[in-house]
């Protein structure tokens, strides 16, 4: 196959990208995005601050721009993200305790109702674990509502849209030996044992010199999969975009049957949140060597 999406489909997988609503008027951007990718994540437009700017007042204008572009072009959509310590609107930042807990539940219900039946997978909870060596939860206003906030989010989400796969999504959980990876692994294992509804783990896979790709990534993917969840690489970008590293990441996913899709976090280097890192698969209109290595890996699967 000659595009990333079609090549991934040969093994029943998808290949997606983050899309920014503000770029949908850029025909060079949409031409590449439409040709190459078969899954879409809104880069910012379905986050809490975008979708509920005032408590109880939902706004899906930009989320729908991304959603409708994807659907009009035959692509599926990953929802990102419902409960997160970051990009909270001011009103939510100022809440605590049971009021915040209820606001989280109401937010999940409001957003998932709008897209009910139309989202392939939701990142229900994003980045809830702490960096560093402790392996525990990140301190945040949501964590302060009680350690059960994550399972409450997942139970709420299952009821709100039973058709969506429900994912836990985080960064720096790629290295199998990292405490953070083990912390998330233990939570997912506990959820599966206790019947908390979780269907997938999103490994963001933002690689740079500070948190480089590690060859034990495949062990991480297969270990999560062995718990009985799908694994998705959800926000892939690699500082410098080494063709070899991009191929290694792709092959790690392809080696595990339950790793069922890869999403890169933007189309062209100029679209990346990591300005100056040239971490993506396109430079302007041009395919980079990393693009060729990913396509070849997908076609060899
Ligand atoms: O839209 C406003 C604009 O009106 C304003 O003038 C401008 C001035 O700062 O800000 C614009 O908003 C920015 C937004 O991106 C849209 O460009 C925010 O400041 C900026 O913080 C925001 O950054 C996003 C970041 O998440 C915020 O946490 C990045 O685009 C987005 O790529 C990034 O994505 C995250 C994932 O959601 C979770 N995992 C990590 C990943 C990378 O940080």
From TrEMBL:
Enzyme class: hydrolase
Domain GH10: 1-297
Superkingdom in the source lineage: Bacteria
Catalysed reactions, as listed in the record: Endohydrolysis of (1->4)-beta-D-xylosidic linkages in xylans
E.C. no: 3.2.1.8
Active site annotation, chain numbering: 235 (nucleophile)
Keywords: Carbohydrate metabolism, Glycosidase, Hydrolase, Membrane, Polysaccharide degradation, Signal, Transmembrane, Transmembrane helix, Xylan degradation
Stated family: Belongs to the glycosyl hydrolase 10 (cellulase F) family.
Protein name stated in the entry: Beta-xylanase
UniProt source species: Sphaerisporangium aureirubrum
Upper taxonomic lineage: Bacteria, Bacillati, Actinomycetota, Actinomycetes, Streptosporangiales
